[in-house]
Specification:
Number of domains: 2
CATH class of the largest domain: Mainly Alpha
Number of strands: 0
Oligomer: single chain
Radius of gyration: 21 Å
Largest sheet: none
Length: about 400
């Protein structure tokens, strides 16, 4: 096996770091794009196949269950074999998922799509953060995490435009075929620049740095005994619960509480995502400037977002101001994004990056899966204000958990 030697940080020019950031950013955008492969076509499936939204919603749950379970284990694969082969395999799975969607004739066929896409999505956080942590200079990691976060938001923003245009021109099946071509082009791009995606496989045995964090005896599963890992997991679960509320229920809540049209409410959701991307860009500079207190930066951003969402729930400032407050909530959360990723890095042993990121970021999938189940019951009861207040409360609790992560992190 050919050995891989990464260049010393002091020798890495900006151009090399920027290339790695760009490649990882494109990959991350394709991951977020996959979250909406099926949901964007739900209205079409209702008309064409007569399925209920409850049945179709199970497809999204299946996607995130597969992704969450796979992500927790994918980190071990990344640490054992390196990030590049796992990343390329994920892109191939996306292509297969889109081709399966193009050919699907039954609900079972779409379940296969959800499984394939969920498996493809599973490794992205351990893959991406392993590449960034090994290939990007430490002083530039704040900017790298900022690019990573922005690219994810852009993937979410691109998917509705892509599928609506392609479906209008060629029909929904050919929209999925076009998506498979898009993923194939991304795969070719990654293959062309594959030398910039190489990472060094990590040893399975625990090292002194892991033992300092309370990991105990040496094994690949030692990270499960590290308290900071579970605090990080809990933070991601809680913060994602609120994001899932916004994505799933913000439009009907604004319509029900304030009589805002569905079109205008949908534009507010778009503004939430776009302002989130702007916040992530600004947050990258804050993360680089305040790298030693990332947990406090994250906590302040979560508290600010919680207060804004509580104001949205109150409706005190009227319908139009509520729209802006909701959009600004995305901005506040976005600012904390790069500091959040650096906060996780501070609590992660260098030799277990893939394993820790895989387990910690599976909290995202758990949050996405649980939130609609809990707050969907609120919505069915017409408790729209309580839904927003509940989401605000969860964000506030996540701020305390972020401070808990900081207290349990040990400098490398």
């Amino acid at each position: 096996m050919q050995s891989v030697v990464l260049r010393d940080e002091s020798q890495r020019p900006w151009r090399e770091d920027a290339r790695v950031m760009g490649l990882v950013g494109v990959a991350h955008a394709s991951s977020h794009f996959s979250h909406l492969l099926l949901p964007l076509m739900f209205p079409v499936f209702v008309q064409e196949f007569g399925w209920r939204y409850a049945e179709l919603g199970m497809l999204s749950s299946l996607f995130f269950v597969i992704s969450g379970l796979g992500q927790a284990g994918a980190g071990f694969v990344v640490d054992r074999w390196g990030a590049r082969p796992v990343l390329l395999t994920s892109m191939a799975l996306y292509i297969l998922a889109c081709l399966q969607a193009y050919a699907a004739q039954s609900y079972a066929g779409l379940m296969v799509v959800a499984v394939l896409a969920g498996l493809g999505n599973a490794p992205f956080h351990p893959v991406n953060f392993t590449i960034l942590n090994q290939r990007v200079s430490t002083p530039r990691l704040g900017y790298a995490f900022s690019v990573h976060g922005v690219s994810g938001n852009l993937g979410w923003a691109l998917a509705p435009v892509f599928f609506s245009v392609c479906a209008a021109w060629w029909g929904w099946r050919h929209a999925f075929l076009a998506a498979s071509v898009l993923y194939a082009l991304i795969l070719v791009l990654l293959l062309i620049h594959r030398q910039h995606l190489v990472t060094i496989p990590a040893p399975v045995a625990s090292s002194p740095s892991m033992r300092e964090r309370g990991s105990g005896q040496g094994s690949a599963l030692a990270i499960l005994r590290m308290p900071v890992v579970w605090w990080c997991f809990l933070f991601f679960l809680l913060s994602t619960v609120t994001l899932a509320v916004v994505q799933n229920f913000a439009v009907p809540i604004l319509n029900a509480l304030h009589g805002i049209s569905l079109e205008q409410a949908s534009m507010t959701l778009t503004a939430y995502m776009l302002l989130g991307a702007v916040g992530i860009l600004i947050g990258g500079f804050l993360a680089a400037r305040f790298a030693q207190v990332t947990d406090r930066v994250v906590a302040l951003c979560m508290v600010a977002a919680a207060l804004l969402m509580a104001l949205c729930a109150s409706g005190w400032l009227g319908p139009q101001a509520t729209l802006w407050l909701l959009a600004l909530t995305g901005f506040a959360v976005g600012i904390g994004g790069p500091s959040r990723d650096l906060m996780i890095k501070k609590g992660t042993p260098k030799e277990a990056t893939g394993r820790v990121y895989g387990l910690v970021y599976s909290g995202l999938d758990v949050g996405f899966a649980l939130s609609p189940l809990v707050f969907g019951l609120f919505m069915d009861q017409g408790w729209y204000t309580a839904t927003l207040l509940g989401a605000a409360l969860v964000l506030f609790i996540s701020a305390g958990v972020a401070l808990g992560v900081g207290q349990r992190s040990v400098p490398h």
